[in-house]
């Protein structure tokens, strides 16, 4: 054998060895031949890790390719189970197919029971006829010492009917839970939630904690809790490891003057807040000026529902800005149900002005549902005059809840995933148009050249009115 032949043979053996390492597994046919399995011969732990990086739906689809992928799917640690992710559709009455829903979830959770899951998001909001016994069975399978995140979204009727099995969280099962999200259920832990030592995020929405009343008192000794989000009818008292809480969201649907409570109490209760989201549905008094400060707050979002008394003073919201010396982002959203009257309050000399208070850190301001009310114009002008670092301000006369990406109306942003804009009746469209006129007349000229102004109004495609019928006069 010549030297060249020996070199070629050596290279051929080297290549064959390499191929053998990734195609060693094969299948035998009836005539004895072997068919190569295209999957690399990797340790199962590596396949499990690869599949854990894939979206749940993609990992599930690959399970039919090979037994290796099937085992990997059954070890997928993140399960997000809903009608959408399971490929189920609602029927004409808006309800999901309960039998198909329960059958699929039963199978998935039982097949994952051996490996355990780290994240379970269980959304049964659309399955209003689901028997509650299924929920407890599913939670018993999923809540193991491995679980780190648990989300349970239930239909509203379960608010008083379903008792979350708190005992499953104890005995070591809740030691690693960092995120707990419960909606429409009763949650009555006998020893509080201090045992959830790893808990960092707690979200409670329409949750009962006592036999008679809605959740009245939240007592958490979780030392690492940094995010707390609460939605309910009435105001709750809470005792948290307050120095650790950085992010707070609260919505009280039936509480009167919730903003008044928030600005007077929260600076003392949670002094290290960095983000704050407040939703108020019934403000009867203006927001007061206070001496306390949110010393670390850099993000503030306020939502105001339609149940404001007609003379509500939007300018009084400047108290929140005064109390937040390092605030960078301010978002105000307002429901559109005001009487569409364009106030003519003359020139700038007729506008009220708050005491000069420079907002040195404020960079981004967004007002959704901007209206022509004088106090709304005054608030906007006050911000423009005092936010010395302002970079952008968005004034949207439509509060388009369908615009999840915040791209604007569909006529100017065809790429928005939500499709058409939200529905507006003729009164709301008229109000929005008058808001545009107020911006043009009183605000546009006050915007510094260094600030980007984004003005949005009704959609030319979805919110058109006949000019002859709805004439707007200044």
How does this structure look, described?
This protein has 474 residues and is α/β, with parallel strands linked by helices. The protein contains ten helices and 17 strands. The chain has a 13-stranded parallel beta sheet with strand order 3-4-5-6-7-9-11-12-13-14-15-16-17, with helices on one face. Strands 1-2 form a two-stranded antiparallel ribbon. A two-stranded parallel sheet has the order 8-10. Strand 16, helix 10 and strand 17 form a beta-alpha-beta unit. The C terminus is likely disordered. Pfam families: F-box, LRR_At1g61320_AtMIF1. This is F-box domain-containing protein.
The arrangement of helices and strands along the chain is HEEHHHEHEHEEEEEEEHEEHEEHEHE
Strand content: 15-25%
Q: What do the pLDDT scores average to?
A: 81
The biggest beta sheet reads:
13 strands, parallel
Number of helices: 10
Q: Note the gap between the termini.
A: 102 Å
Could you list the spans in which at least 5 consecutive residues all have pLDDT below 50?
Answer: 17-30, 467-474
Extended strand count: 17
Secondary-structure blueprint of this entry?
Elements: H1 3-22, E1 26-28, E2 34-36, H2 44-52, H3 56-61, H4 67-73, E3 78-81, H5 98-112, E4 119-123, H6 132-142, E5 149-153, E6 179-186, E7 201-208, E8 217-219, E9 227-232, E10 237-239, E11 247-252, H7 258-269, E12 275-280, E13 299-304, H8 318-322, E14 329-334, E15 364-368, H9 374-386, E16 392-396, H10 426-443, E17 452-456
Parallel strand pairs: 3-4, 4-5, 5-6, 6-7, 7-9, 8-10, 9-11, 11-12, 12-13, 13-14, 14-15, 15-16, 16-17
Antiparallel strand pairs: 1-2
Helix pairs in contact: 2-4, 5-6
Biased composition (Basic residues): 8-17
InterPro entries: At1g61320/At1g61330-like, F-box-like_dom_sf, F-box_dom, LRR_At1g61320_AtMIF1, LRR_dom_sf
Protein name: F-box domain-containing protein
